[in-house]
Design goal:
371 residues
Length: 371
């Protein structure tokens, strides 16, 4: 096992903070899926949702960065897989069972619908939900990240091959090769590299590996960027989500904006990949340039996986009980503001409390020692 000289990068927790905030914003604004009227508020919310879709790709980017920082081409296979799967699977199994219980308690209002309550919940249904990653809607990410862990030796071998043959042009070669795969998947049925396959996220995983491999050079260039580059990045980040958001507007509001744009699906693949990578770079620039020392932001980043696992419980609570009680509908701006706050703060507090106890620390981290 080869390691870099640095065991940890403080910037990573701030990037995790940005990513988990993005996840919560997406899960907040997806309430517009049941709003079929295009208003200024729904347009803005859909735009924000599309902008913050970088969140999962950013987590994938961070995973590639962190793994490459610890494991290179020569892997201690048993240690690697044991640690990776425990860290993911222990919290996942616990919360999968918990979400099944929530589904039984709330009957047809839970994530897993059990119309007859606990009488319809069986050991077989729980096991199936765990194996199918269906205990909660956001658990598809667990399946995705496990896929990258399983195939990490192949991915790192691919990266090393590209690096060997293209040298200084490694990043360009990686980006173009993956984009070609994406586009090829659109035209050759039944390949679907552009939509549901983990290959959709491979470029971000590889980009994380590349940034870690060239971190000193990357960090030096980001610590003193020109004002023109910062302006270009800012304008691009603000503008690019407009391209892909119209597909969601069409789906939710019955419009047909995308029909007038040639090769729209392929355009989305390229524009979103560029957008997300620019956001990663911009986020890294912000942490390197401003060097924040804000404890709560760092802690939210550290607790991001636990917050990710827990927040769905509060989504159910607010959506099915609190908002109906106060007659707050999805047409009200208050719905989105309170839902975001109501998912973030309690999730953060519960994870922080869990990390003060040996047993609950193991449940939330999959590690015998605290973080």
């Amino acid at each position: 096992m080869n390691k870099t000289q640095r065991n940890w990068f403080e910037e990573i927790n701030y990037l995790r903070f940005i990513a988990i905030i993005g996840v919560l914003i997406i899960h907040t604004t997806d309430g517009t899926v049941s709003v079929h009227k295009l208003t200024g508020m729904t347009f803005t919310l859909i735009y924000l949702e599309e902008l913050f879709r970088f969140a999962v790709p950013m987590f994938i980017f961070i995973s590639g960065f962190v793994l490459h920082n610890k494991y290179r081409s020569e892997l201690p296979m048993r240690e690697f897989y044991t640690k990776r799967f425990l860290v993911i699977y222990i919290p996942y199994i616990f919360f999968s069972v918990f979400y099944n219980i929530i589904g039984a308690l709330t009957k047809n209002e839970g994530v897993i619908p059990y119309p007859d309550g606990f009488s319809s919940m069986t050991l077989n249904s729980i096991i199936n939900s765990i194996l199918n990653f269906s205990s909660a809607g956001h658990f598809w990410y667990i399946k995705l990240i496990l896929t990258f862990y399983i195939f990490y030796p192949i991915v790192i071998a691919y990266y090393e091959t590209i690096k060997k043959h293209f040298g200084a042009y490694t990043l360009v070669a990686l980006f173009l090769s993956i984009i070609i795969m994406y586009l090829f998947g659109w035209f050759v049925y039944p390949l679907d590299f552009g939509l549901s396959s983990p290959l959709r996220f491979l470029i971000y995983f590889l980009f994380g590996i590349y940034v870690n491999d060239n971190y000193e050079q990357v960090s030096r260039s980001l610590e003193r960027p020109s004002s023109k580059k910062v302006t270009l990045f800012s304008v691009s980040i603000v503008s690019l989500p407009i391209i892909s958001m119209f597909s969601w507007i069409d789906q939710r509001c019955g419009t047909q904006f995308t029909n007038s744009i040639p090769n729209y699906a392929q355009l989305i693949i390229i524009s979103t990949a560029i957008l997300y990578i620019m956001i990663f770079v911009f986020g890294l620039y912000l942490t390197l340039y401003y060097k924040p020392k804000i404890r709560i932001l760092k802690e939210i980043g550290e607790y991001s996986y636990g917050i990710f696992m827990i927040h769905g419980i509060f989504h159910i609570l607010f959506d099915n009980y609190i908002f109906p009680f106060f007659s707050i509908s999805r047409m009200d701006l208050a719905y989105y503001v309170f839902l975001f706050i109501g998912m973030l703060l309690p999730s953060y507090y519960i994870v922080k409390r869990m990390l003060t106890n040996y047993l609950t620390t193991y449940i939330i981290t999959g590690k015998l020692n605290s973080h």
